Protein backbone atom coordinates (compact mmCIF):
# COMPACT_ATOMS: atom_id res chain seq x y z
CA UNK A 1 0.00 0.00 0.00
CA UNK A 2 1.34 3.43 -0.97
CA UNK A 3 2.40 5.75 1.84
CA UNK A 4 -0.02 8.58 2.50
CA UNK A 5 1.32 12.03 1.71
CA UNK A 6 0.34 15.62 1.03
CA UNK A 7 1.56 17.31 -2.15
CA UNK A 8 2.12 21.08 -2.14
CA UNK A 9 2.42 22.70 -5.58
CA UNK A 10 3.86 26.15 -6.20
CA UNK A 11 6.82 28.46 -5.94
CA UNK A 12 10.05 28.47 -3.97
CA UNK A 13 11.17 32.07 -3.52
CA UNK A 14 14.51 33.10 -2.07
CA UNK A 15 13.80 35.86 0.43
CA UNK A 16 16.54 38.45 0.82
CA UNK A 17 16.10 39.58 4.42
CA UNK A 18 17.28 43.10 5.24
CA UNK A 19 19.81 43.20 8.09
CA UNK A 20 21.71 46.01 9.84
CA UNK A 21 24.46 47.61 7.78
CA UNK A 22 22.60 47.34 4.49
CA UNK A 23 23.25 43.63 4.04
CA UNK A 24 20.73 41.01 2.92
CA UNK A 25 20.60 37.41 4.09
CA UNK A 26 19.19 34.82 1.61
CA UNK A 27 16.54 32.52 3.12
CA UNK A 28 14.48 30.03 1.08
CA UNK A 29 10.77 30.83 1.30
CA UNK A 30 7.71 31.33 -0.84
CA UNK A 31 4.26 30.43 0.45
CA UNK A 32 3.96 26.87 -0.94
CA UNK A 33 7.51 25.98 0.13
CA UNK A 34 6.78 27.35 3.61
CA UNK A 35 3.60 25.26 3.81
CA UNK A 36 5.53 22.14 2.79
CA UNK A 37 8.21 22.77 5.42
CA UNK A 38 5.57 23.43 8.06
CA UNK A 39 3.72 20.21 7.25
CA UNK A 40 6.92 18.17 7.33
CA UNK A 41 7.93 19.60 10.72
CA UNK A 42 4.50 18.65 12.06
CA UNK A 43 5.04 15.06 10.98
CA UNK A 44 3.16 14.85 7.68
CA UNK A 45 4.89 13.10 4.78
CA UNK A 46 5.09 15.98 2.30
CA UNK A 47 6.07 16.29 -1.35
CA UNK A 48 6.83 19.67 -2.94
CA UNK A 49 5.84 19.96 -6.58
CA UNK A 50 7.95 22.92 -7.67
CA UNK A 51 10.31 24.15 -10.37
CA UNK A 52 13.62 24.67 -8.59
CA UNK A 53 15.72 27.31 -10.30
CA UNK A 54 19.35 27.15 -11.30
CA UNK A 55 22.10 29.56 -10.32
CA UNK A 56 23.64 30.69 -7.07
CA UNK A 57 20.72 29.69 -4.83
CA UNK A 58 20.06 26.21 -6.23
CA UNK A 59 22.04 24.38 -3.55
CA UNK A 60 20.66 26.59 -0.75
CA UNK A 61 17.08 25.76 -1.75
CA UNK A 62 17.71 22.02 -2.02
CA UNK A 63 19.49 21.86 1.33
CA UNK A 64 16.71 23.83 3.03
CA UNK A 65 13.92 21.62 1.70
CA UNK A 66 15.66 18.27 2.19
CA UNK A 67 16.98 19.36 5.57
CA UNK A 68 13.39 19.89 6.69
CA UNK A 69 12.29 16.50 5.44
CA UNK A 70 10.41 17.76 2.37
CA UNK A 71 10.41 15.17 -0.43
CA UNK A 72 11.26 16.32 -3.95
CA UNK A 73 10.32 13.25 -6.00
CA UNK A 74 8.19 15.34 -8.39
CA UNK A 75 10.14 18.61 -8.32
CA UNK A 76 11.73 19.86 -11.55
CA UNK A 77 15.29 21.16 -11.74
CA UNK A 78 14.76 24.10 -14.10
CA UNK A 79 17.15 26.08 -16.29
CA UNK A 80 15.66 29.43 -15.27
CA UNK A 81 16.88 31.29 -12.16
CA UNK A 82 15.13 31.29 -8.79
CA UNK A 83 12.59 34.00 -7.99
CA UNK A 84 13.85 36.59 -5.46
CA UNK A 85 11.94 38.69 -2.94
CA UNK A 86 13.50 41.55 -0.98
CA UNK A 87 11.83 41.49 2.44
CA UNK A 88 11.60 44.46 4.78
CA UNK A 89 9.81 44.40 8.14
CA UNK A 90 8.20 47.46 9.75
CA UNK A 91 8.20 48.31 13.46
CA UNK A 92 5.03 46.26 14.02
CA UNK A 93 6.63 43.15 12.53
CA UNK A 94 4.64 43.24 9.26
CA UNK A 95 6.56 42.25 6.14
CA UNK A 96 6.74 43.96 2.75
CA UNK A 97 7.91 42.07 -0.35
CA UNK A 98 9.52 43.45 -3.51
CA UNK A 99 9.76 40.67 -6.10
CA UNK A 100 12.22 39.98 -8.90
CA UNK A 101 10.19 37.44 -10.85
CA UNK A 102 10.36 38.04 -14.62
CA UNK A 103 11.47 34.93 -16.50
CA UNK A 104 12.17 32.93 -13.35
CA UNK A 105 11.64 29.21 -12.85
CA UNK A 106 8.48 29.16 -10.77
CA UNK A 107 6.00 30.26 -13.44
CA UNK A 108 7.13 28.15 -16.42
CA UNK A 109 5.16 24.93 -15.85
CA UNK A 110 4.30 22.80 -18.86
CA UNK A 111 1.71 20.00 -18.63
CA UNK A 112 4.28 17.23 -19.16
CA UNK A 113 6.17 18.33 -16.04
CA UNK A 114 3.20 17.58 -13.75
CA UNK A 115 2.35 14.03 -12.57
CA UNK A 116 -0.66 12.42 -14.22
CA UNK A 117 -2.19 11.01 -12.12
CA UNK A 118 -0.98 12.00 -8.69
CA UNK A 119 0.64 9.06 -6.89
CA UNK A 120 -1.47 6.60 -4.93
CA UNK A 121 -1.76 7.60 -1.31
CA UNK A 122 -2.00 11.34 -1.99
CA UNK A 123 -4.32 12.73 0.66
CA UNK A 124 -4.35 16.33 -0.54
CA UNK A 125 -3.05 18.60 -3.26
CA UNK A 126 -2.44 22.07 -1.85
CA UNK A 127 -1.65 25.06 -4.03
CA UNK A 128 -2.14 28.80 -4.28
CA UNK A 129 -0.13 32.01 -4.03
CA UNK A 130 1.62 33.24 -7.16
CA UNK A 131 2.29 30.08 -9.18
CA UNK A 132 -1.37 29.06 -9.20
CA UNK A 133 -2.40 32.23 -11.04
CA UNK A 134 0.67 33.64 -12.83
CA UNK A 135 1.22 33.13 -16.55
CA UNK A 136 2.58 31.28 -18.43
CA UNK A 137 2.52 28.24 -16.12
CA UNK A 138 -0.84 28.66 -14.33
CA UNK A 139 -2.91 26.92 -17.07
CA UNK A 140 -0.90 23.74 -16.52
CA UNK A 141 -1.62 23.84 -12.78
CA UNK A 142 -5.30 24.54 -13.49
CA UNK A 143 -5.37 21.45 -15.73
CA UNK A 144 -3.86 19.41 -12.87
CA UNK A 145 -6.49 20.71 -10.42
CA UNK A 146 -9.36 19.97 -12.79
CA UNK A 147 -8.08 16.47 -13.43
CA UNK A 148 -7.68 15.67 -9.73
CA UNK A 149 -11.03 17.28 -8.90
CA UNK A 150 -12.68 14.88 -11.35
CA UNK A 151 -10.78 11.88 -9.95
CA UNK A 152 -11.99 12.87 -6.45
CA UNK A 153 -9.25 10.99 -4.60
CA UNK A 154 -7.11 13.79 -3.17
CA UNK A 155 -8.59 16.78 -1.36
CA UNK A 156 -7.99 20.00 -3.29
CA UNK A 157 -6.74 22.75 -0.96
CA UNK A 158 -6.31 26.41 -1.95
CA UNK A 159 -4.61 29.34 -0.22
CA UNK A 160 -4.77 32.42 -2.50
CA UNK A 161 -2.05 34.43 -0.69
CA UNK A 162 -2.44 37.12 -3.36
CA UNK A 163 0.50 39.20 -4.61
CA UNK A 164 -1.36 41.65 -6.91
CA UNK A 165 1.76 43.20 -8.48
CA UNK A 166 2.78 39.80 -9.89
CA UNK A 167 -0.61 38.89 -11.38
CA UNK A 168 -2.79 39.99 -14.28
CA UNK A 169 -5.18 42.91 -13.99
CA UNK A 170 -7.69 42.48 -11.14
CA UNK A 171 -10.81 41.54 -13.11
CA UNK A 172 -9.26 38.53 -14.87
CA UNK A 173 -7.41 37.40 -11.74
CA UNK A 174 -10.60 37.51 -9.68
CA UNK A 175 -12.48 35.54 -12.33
CA UNK A 176 -9.66 32.99 -12.40
CA UNK A 177 -9.78 32.53 -8.62
CA UNK A 178 -13.54 32.07 -8.78
CA UNK A 179 -12.87 29.11 -11.06
CA UNK A 180 -10.28 27.68 -8.67
CA UNK A 181 -12.58 28.02 -5.65
CA UNK A 182 -15.23 25.89 -7.33
CA UNK A 183 -12.67 23.10 -7.74
CA UNK A 184 -11.59 23.15 -4.08
CA UNK A 185 -12.57 21.03 -1.11
CA UNK A 186 -10.84 23.34 1.38
CA UNK A 187 -10.02 27.04 1.09
CA UNK A 188 -7.90 28.99 3.55
CA UNK A 189 -7.82 32.73 2.87
CA UNK A 190 -6.68 35.84 4.71
CA UNK A 191 -8.91 38.85 5.25
CA UNK A 192 -6.42 40.88 3.15
CA UNK A 193 -6.86 38.46 0.25
CA UNK A 194 -10.63 38.62 0.61
CA UNK A 195 -10.60 42.41 0.51
CA UNK A 196 -8.76 42.23 -2.83
CA UNK A 197 -10.62 39.25 -4.34
CA UNK A 198 -14.12 40.36 -3.28
CA UNK A 199 -13.93 44.11 -2.60
CA UNK A 200 -16.82 45.81 -0.86
CA UNK A 201 -18.00 42.74 1.04
CA UNK A 202 -17.46 41.73 4.66
CA UNK A 203 -15.21 38.75 5.38
CA UNK A 204 -18.02 36.65 6.84
CA UNK A 205 -20.28 37.34 3.87
CA UNK A 206 -17.70 36.20 1.33
CA UNK A 207 -16.71 33.12 3.35
CA UNK A 208 -20.35 32.00 3.50
CA UNK A 209 -20.73 32.59 -0.23
CA UNK A 210 -17.63 30.55 -1.06
CA UNK A 211 -18.79 27.69 1.18
CA UNK A 212 -21.95 27.52 -0.96
CA UNK A 213 -19.97 27.18 -4.19
CA UNK A 214 -18.22 23.84 -3.80
CA UNK A 215 -15.70 23.73 -0.93
CA UNK A 216 -16.56 21.65 2.12
CA UNK A 217 -14.68 24.11 4.33
CA UNK A 218 -13.68 27.76 3.99
CA UNK A 219 -11.44 29.32 6.65
CA UNK A 220 -10.57 33.02 6.86
CA UNK A 221 -7.70 34.29 9.00
CA UNK A 222 -8.19 37.79 10.40
CA UNK A 223 -4.92 38.62 12.13
CA UNK A 224 -5.46 39.74 15.72
CA UNK A 225 -9.20 39.06 15.32
CA UNK A 226 -8.62 35.32 14.98
CA UNK A 227 -10.27 32.92 12.54
CA UNK A 228 -13.73 32.52 11.03
CA UNK A 229 -14.75 29.26 9.32
CA UNK A 230 -17.85 27.96 7.54
CA UNK A 231 -18.65 24.49 6.23
CA UNK A 232 -20.82 23.58 3.26
CA UNK A 233 -23.40 22.32 5.78
CA UNK A 234 -23.59 25.76 7.42
CA UNK A 235 -21.54 25.10 10.56
CA UNK A 236 -19.84 28.35 11.61
CA UNK A 237 -16.94 28.67 14.04
CA UNK A 238 -15.01 31.70 15.28
CA UNK A 239 -11.77 31.24 17.21
CA UNK A 240 -9.86 34.14 18.82
CA UNK A 241 -6.15 34.70 18.33
CA UNK A 242 -3.90 34.36 21.40
CA UNK A 243 -1.82 37.27 22.60
CA UNK A 244 1.84 36.66 21.77
CA UNK A 245 5.01 38.72 21.58
CA UNK A 246 5.30 39.25 17.83
CA UNK A 247 8.80 39.30 16.35
CA UNK A 248 7.46 39.37 12.80
CA UNK A 249 4.58 37.91 10.80
CA UNK A 250 6.69 36.40 8.01
CA UNK A 251 5.29 32.96 7.17
CA UNK A 252 2.50 33.09 9.77
CA UNK A 253 -0.28 32.53 7.24
CA UNK A 254 1.64 29.65 5.68
CA UNK A 255 2.17 28.14 9.12
CA UNK A 256 -1.57 28.33 9.76
CA UNK A 257 -2.23 26.50 6.48
CA UNK A 258 0.23 23.79 7.53
CA UNK A 259 -1.44 23.48 10.92
CA UNK A 260 -4.91 23.34 9.38
CA UNK A 261 -3.97 20.63 6.89
CA UNK A 262 -2.11 18.61 9.49
CA UNK A 263 -5.06 18.79 11.86
CA UNK A 264 -7.40 17.60 9.13
CA UNK A 265 -4.94 14.80 8.31
CA UNK A 266 -4.77 13.63 11.93
CA UNK A 267 -8.58 13.65 12.09
CA UNK A 268 -8.84 11.51 8.90
CA UNK A 269 -10.64 14.30 7.06
CA UNK A 270 -8.50 14.38 3.91
CA UNK A 271 -8.61 12.29 0.73
CA UNK A 272 -11.42 10.24 -0.74
CA UNK A 273 -12.19 8.54 2.57
CA UNK A 274 -12.31 11.81 4.51
CA UNK A 275 -14.27 13.95 2.07
CA UNK A 276 -17.72 12.95 3.26
CA UNK A 277 -16.72 13.17 6.92
CA UNK A 278 -15.38 16.70 6.41
CA UNK A 279 -18.78 17.92 5.22
CA UNK A 280 -20.26 16.57 8.46
CA UNK A 281 -17.60 17.95 10.82
CA UNK A 282 -18.99 19.21 14.12
CA UNK A 283 -18.40 22.71 15.47
CA UNK A 284 -16.47 21.21 18.40
CA UNK A 285 -14.08 19.22 16.22
CA UNK A 286 -13.57 22.10 13.81
CA UNK A 287 -12.86 24.48 16.68
CA UNK A 288 -10.18 22.13 18.04
CA UNK A 289 -8.48 21.85 14.63
CA UNK A 290 -8.54 25.63 14.18
CA UNK A 291 -7.15 26.26 17.68
CA UNK A 292 -4.21 24.00 16.88
CA UNK A 293 -3.60 25.75 13.54
CA UNK A 294 -3.68 29.13 15.30
CA UNK A 295 -1.13 27.85 17.81
CA UNK A 296 1.17 26.85 14.94
CA UNK A 297 0.86 30.35 13.42
CA UNK A 298 1.26 32.11 16.77
CA UNK A 299 4.49 30.27 17.57
CA UNK A 300 5.82 31.27 14.14
CA UNK A 301 5.10 34.94 14.94
CA UNK A 302 7.36 34.72 18.00
CA UNK A 303 10.36 33.90 15.80
CA UNK A 304 12.23 35.71 13.08
CA UNK A 305 11.23 34.73 9.57
CA UNK A 306 9.25 31.73 8.35
CA UNK A 307 10.24 29.28 11.09
CA UNK A 308 7.21 27.06 11.85
CA UNK A 309 7.20 24.77 14.90
CA UNK A 310 7.53 21.02 15.18
CA UNK A 311 4.66 18.94 16.54
CA UNK A 312 6.54 18.43 19.81
CA UNK A 313 6.31 22.18 20.52
CA UNK A 314 2.50 22.25 20.44
CA UNK A 315 0.15 21.95 23.37
CA UNK A 316 -2.63 20.62 21.13
CA UNK A 317 -1.06 17.53 19.59
CA UNK A 318 -3.89 15.69 17.90
CA UNK A 319 -7.61 15.31 17.15
CA UNK A 320 -10.23 16.29 19.71
Automatic annotation (TrEMBL):
GO biological-process terms attached to the record: fructose metabolic process
InterPro entries (UniProt xref): Carboh/pur_kinase_PfkB_CS (IPR002173), PfkB_Carbo_kinase (IPR050306), PfkB_dom (IPR011611), Ribo/fructo_kinase (IPR002139), Ribokinase-like (IPR029056)
Annotated signal peptide: none
Organism this protein belongs to: Phytoactinopolyspora halophila
Domain of life according to the entry: Bacteria
Keyword Kinase: yes
A Pfam family annotated for this UniProt entry: PfkB
GO-annotated molecular function: ATP binding; fructokinase activity
Start and end residues of each Carbohydrate kinase PfkB domain: 5-309
Keywords: ATP-binding, Kinase, Nucleotide-binding, Transferase
Name listed for the protein in its UniProt record: Carbohydrate kinase
Amino acid sequence: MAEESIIVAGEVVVDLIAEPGGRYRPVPGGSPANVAVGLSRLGARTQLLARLGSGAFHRLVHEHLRGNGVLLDYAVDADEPQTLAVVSVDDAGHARYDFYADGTADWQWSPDELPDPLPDGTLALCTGSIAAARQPGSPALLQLLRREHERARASIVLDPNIRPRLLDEPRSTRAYWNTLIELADIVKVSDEDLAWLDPGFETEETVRDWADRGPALVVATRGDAGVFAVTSEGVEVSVPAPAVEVVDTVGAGDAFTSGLLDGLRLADLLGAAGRGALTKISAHQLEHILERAIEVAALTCTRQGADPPAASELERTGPA
